Structures are given as C-alpha cells and as structure tokens.
C-alpha cells in the first residue's frame, strides 16, 4: 500500500511543480507552465490511502505491451503509449514513449545535412532546403497532440501522444518558390516502404493541403521533439506536423513538397484513411476530402482504489482532447443504463489533452464499462457517438 501525505494546498502544489520541473530539466515555455499550473489548480488532489491502481481494458481485443515495438518492421510495426502514467507533472509524453504507427524504413539515412527536399511542381521541381537548413531556422512550436486515425484498440487506445515540437512553418518554406498559375494546393510526400507486403497498410505517404487553409491550419516541418532531434521512427530528419489533424496527415521522412492543381487526385494515403477520418466514401479528388480533424473526445486512463475516511472509494483519472476549443463539462457513465454524472473539466487548451478526475463509489462488485460524453450537444464528437474510447474495469470490493 502507498499512503498519500495530506494533499498540499494549491499554492504549495504550484511551487512543487515548478521546483520538480526545474530539477528534472523540464525547461517548458511560459504558456506550457501556465497550462500545467491551471490543471494543477483544477484537478482534485487524491485523498486518503492509495490501495492499488486497477487495470483498464476492453473486451474482444488482444492486449499489446506498452512502450515496446511490436508487429515486425516498417508498415506493421507499432509502439503503444502508456497513457495511465499521465499526471499534472507529466503531461508531455517522453520521447521513448511516443507512439509509433509505422517504423523507419530499413537502411534509411537520417543525415540532416545530406537530406534535401524536392520543392516546386511536377513540371519544374527544384532542389529545396536541406533538413539541416530547416533546423537552423526552426523555433519552438509548442506542444501538440498526435493521434493515429486507427487508434481503436480498447485495451489501451495507446496510439496517441503529446509532444513539444521545434520546427519551421510550411508557409515559410513555400515562400522561396513561386507557385504555378494553376496551383490550388500543396502536396507533402515522404519516404515510405515501397514493395513491403503488409496485411494492414499500404505503401505511399502523402497528403494534399489546400492553399487557402495553410495560414489558419498552421502545419510545420518539425526537426526536434521534446528538445531533442527527431528519432528515426518518428520521422527524422524532418516530418510534417498538422495541429488538430489525425496522424495520417503528419507525413514522416518528408522528401518532397510540390504544388498541385484543383483537379489533383486523392493520394493513396488519403484513400487508405478515408473511412478512419470520417470521409463520405472514398473521394477520387483531393478537393472533395474533408479535413481529417480530431473531434473532442474523452476517456479514463486509470482507476485508483482508495480508502477514504474508512470506506473504499475509487478515483477515476481521465483525459479530454481534440476539437477546436476547450470544454468544461463532461458526463460520465458506468454502463448503458446509467443516466450519467456531470464531471467538471478545467480545459485550458485543445492542442494537447487535459486531465479530469471523478470520485466514485460503485454500488456492488462487478464489471463496469466507463464511457464519457461532452455535456454541450453543439460540440462535434463523432467517435464518442460511435462508442469509441470505452474502458472496462473490474471492481471486486465496495
């Protein structure tokens, strides 16, 4: 058993977070500290005596080890993030725990000085910047959440991470080349795995972005994560980051940027992920694709069994993420017949994720399926509406 000391006051916790962060070498930007401290003031501190943390899982899925590469090489490789470790002082995912959906191609050279992007259009492509040149111009871009569009394993939902990025806006790179008259969008491509046979994925990595969306969307070419150079499996030496969009559009190992006309066909990557990004069928043309935006969603990440004032109690810790704006209210349910209980959320950003907590005293032992919904019906929640992110817990004592 682990006994919690008396929960510190909010000012004391704020001082602790700053001191602990400095001791751990976490030189976060001021706005990152502001977000972290706001959550520290909102998330209810744990009380009583921690007895144990109960596992969360989902029915009918194969459990995969967390933080370990599985599935083979290239297109079939996967590494799942352990979301249960998130806490107010650990909201950015350590680099070694950031999920991997596709591993680096075998033999890939990630030498930044020798990695040069092709830039222009198909009729007159030219030599663009090197990855090293992009790194020289890069600056802090803040923390952004990346979620795989295929994040559907109820055992862990671990194809999701939050990373602090350094990079260069895509618009800054495009300024060096005059677009052709028929340019409607820009295609970003990356090295992939030509010829690899895979039962779950197909080679080809590129996405098309309409020019009139670039300023508001803010995509950038990342060269570093969490203060360190990108790793090979995370797209080194340069990858695309698209805030608020699913990871299928975050092209890794970027080697080509070119203009395309309004009648450009959808890429193989776009077609592969059409269903997972809520498209209406499989549009043949890129212009007919909806933005692959991450809707607002929420789920529990751990359940703590505690003894509070001589009684058993369960503290549920969860996250909310996605959407265009923070939300402040959720509804938690413990089964299909449960009418739901309100949960207060102090969301300060939609760029990453926000913690929430809920104190729960179940009426009897048994299995409970924990689900969330957003209290505001005006907020789009397509995956929650499809019963994504439900986690099961077994309660053996009340």
What does this structure look like?
- This protein is of the alpha+beta class and 398 residues long.
- Helices cover 13% and strands 30% of the residues.
- It contains seven helices and 19 strands.
- The strands form four sheets. It has a five-stranded antiparallel β-sheet, with no helix packed on it.
- A hairpin with a 2-residue loop joins β13 and β14 (311-321).
- α1 (10-23) crosses α2 (30-42).
- The two termini are 17 Å apart.
- Residues 1-41 have low confidence and may be disordered.
Question: Can I get a quick summary?
Answer:
The chain has 398 residues and is α+β, with helices and mostly antiparallel strands.
Which series of helices and strands comes N to C?
Answer: EHHEEEHEEHEEHEEEEHEEEEEEHE
Counting DSSP E segments of at least 2 residues, the number of strands comes to 19
Mean pLDDT: 87
Roughly how much helix do the residues carry, as a percent range? Answer: 10-25%
Biggest beta sheet summary: 5 strands, antiparallel
Number of helices: 7
Cross-sheet strand order for the largest sheet: 1-2-13-14-17
Low-confidence stretches: 1-41
Structural class: alpha+beta
Overall geometry comes to elongated
What is the first-to-last residue Cα distance?
Answer: 17 Å
What is Rg? 22 Å
Q: Strand percentage, roughly?
A: 25-35%
List keywords for this structure.
398 residues, single chain, five-stranded mixed β-sheet, alpha+beta
